[in-house]
């Protein structure tokens, strides 16, 4: 009976991982947990199989046979899913140690070295969190990070552990703030202006902080991925206007599950109350996108595609229930056809924020190691030739 119960947990989630995450909570959980707890589910399945085999040897009855079969299925399924995630990461140049990934850590790592106000807007300071390289450098490569949160929530330190990790490897990391929409006050035109202001501040202060602005990579997740792409692509075309100063040209863009297509997000439901795609898009735009075509055009990343856009890495979880994976893949293909150097990495059995539930998880290691490999190959990592 113990083996039966232990095997049931990973087996239910194996089945859930094969379901559409937008259609049921079961499918959502099945795709949300494997990139965090895959190795744990493998161990649980193997333990269940061992107990089932032991019980079968001693009491060869129907219930022990059923327990053994369930445990075997759970072991095969969990090993396949976890191995597929690791293999996809390796194919993209990343690296995951499944044993090390058993030891999860908090996404909070003590906070930034400094938080500064880059501007004051509507009486509120627009902030930037600064993570300095572990070893002082005269010209460290620079990462500018734009957080996610559906344009409604989030903060400059929500991925604190990752930002500190990149700084410890030698990057100057600056996470920039932007206005989030409260109910009835859309920020479709304000959030991009704030990110541009943060980028202009970084352009003026990177050298003072020990960074080389000529080796700038702009990173962003979800809503922040939209803002990162739009800013970097527009800056490369000279289309960014801000009173905060000159916006630098990025050498690369690295985004995850970017909200590139507001219409696709609006029409794609997600079974989590209080964070539905339709509500997020409506709140950001100030109404239905069908009634706001000019605003949709202003925030859609398709608007900013051109053949001089910086090289771009896009990480897309294949079972994303918030930002539809197909919409991200379609954007990547469209940008490639327009002449943009886009590398698309699909993360199997993964949902939205697959990397942010716990530091050191499978998904977290995938995000970190693939990003480092990509930037190193392009001379944008500490110690890389440029």
Q: So how many helices?
A: 11
Query: What is the alpha-carbon Rg in Å?
Result: 22 Å
Beta strand count:
8
Q: Using the coordinates above, name the CATH class of the largest domain.
A: Alpha Beta
Which sequence of strands runs across the widest sheet? Answer: 1-2-4-3-5-6-7-8
CATH architectural group of the largest domain: 3-Layer(aba) Sandwich
CATH third-tier fold name of the largest domain: Rossmann fold
Structural class per helix/strand content? Answer: alpha/beta
Largest sheet: 8 strands, mixed
Mind telling me the CATH superfamily name of the largest domain? Alpha/Beta hydrolase fold, catalytic domain
- Provide the helix percentage: 40-55%
State the domain count.
2
Low-pLDDT residue spans: none
| First-residue to last-residue Cα separation | 61 Å
Give the overall form: globular
Mean pLDDT, rounded to whole units?
91
Strand content: 5-15%
| String of helices and strands | HHHEEEHEHEHEHHHEHEH
TL;DR?
The protein has helices at residues 2-17, 25-58, 62-91, 160-169, 190-205, 223-236, 262-266, 277-285, 293-299, 325-337, 362-377; strands at residues 114-121, 124-131, 140-146, 172-176, 211-221, 252-256, 311-317, 342-347. The protein is globular.
